[in-house]
Amino acid sequence: MISFLKNWIARRIAVGEFSRREDVVRFACFRTLWTTLAAVILNFAVYQTFGRLGIFDVALPPNPVSDTIVTAFVAGPISFLAYYFVGSAIFDLAVSRNEFERLSRIDPLTGLLNRRAFVEVIAALEEPYVLAVFDIDRFKSINDTYGHKAGDDVLVEVSHMLRSAFGAENTVARLGGEEFGVILRGQTTDETIEAVNLFREAMALHTFEVNGKDITVTTSAGVSEGDGKLSYSMLFTKADKALYVAKAMGRNRVVHAEEIAAIVPSNGNGEDKIAS
């Protein structure tokens, strides 16, 4: 019975039945109606059976209609209160569950999606898309020079800039540390590179106030394209490799994964030197 109740509650929460307070009232009213009806029928049946058979000296009520009304007025309020309390408890459980699920998908510092949620978004995509991986250049020096609180402030401000630049129609996430990811859809390769470069340039021109001082921060980015079939791991590897090339070329630049072969010389074994 307990297992059945757990499964029933889990299914109700999963379908969003207790997502609003109004759902609790609706639940209580609907269940009260059926419980009151059952109480009236059961009361009538017990009186008729016990009264006619003389069980426990139960006598038939002199006015069945009045008895039915009294039963309804007693069972109704009690049932409503009981179901309302039960519904409220399920509602609170649903809110807690949804909040936990939301927090498990959100980076607590920046408010962006975390890596887990980002991977889930990519896994659900079927149309072509582009993955851009951004990394703040020389971020460790910010922490070492101004402290980790200053580094966190920079991360938060960069996340706001990313959301402002890409968040309206695309997916933005913090992948970890000073690394961010953006999924861009509905754009050509050239349009994507242009958009990523515009953000890179805006970052380089932006002034960050850190511990009362104005500093500038640059970012590098690696870009790779997916068709909805390529795994996140493969896609990220290509973008991360392009990002590494961007860093090796002096930072503050964008490199597409398809450009690596033209940028990095081969080591003679069919592999680029950066991978060896």
Fold and architecture overview:
There is one protein chain. With 276 residues, this protein is α+β, with helices and mostly antiparallel strands. It has 2 domains: 2-103, no CATH class; 115-275, Alpha-Beta Plaits, CATH 3.30.70.270. 58% of the residues lie in helices and 14% in strands. It has helices at 2-14, 21-53, 64-103, 115-124, 139-146, 148-166, 189-205, 232-248, 260-263, and strands at residues 129-136, 171-176, 179-185, 207-210, 213-216, 219-226, 254-256. The strands form 2 sheets. Strands 2-3-1-6-7 form a 5-stranded mixed sheet, sandwiched between helices. It has a two-stranded antiparallel sheet with strand order 4-5. A hairpin with a 2-residue loop joins strand 2 (171-176) and strand 3. Helix 2 runs antiparallel to helix 3 and helix 5 packs across helix 6. The longest helix is centred in the first third of the chain and has 40 residues, at 64-103. The mean pLDDT is 83.
**Helix-strand makeup class:** alpha+beta
Gross CATH architecture of the largest domain: 2-Layer Sandwich
Arithmetic mean of pLDDT? 83
Assign the CATH class of the largest domain.
Answer: Alpha Beta
Percent range for β-strand residues: 5-15%
Oligomerization category of the chains in this entry: single chain
CATH superfamily of the largest domain: Reverse transcriptase/Diguanylate cyclase domain
Which spans of ≥5 residues are poorly predicted at pLDDT below 50? none
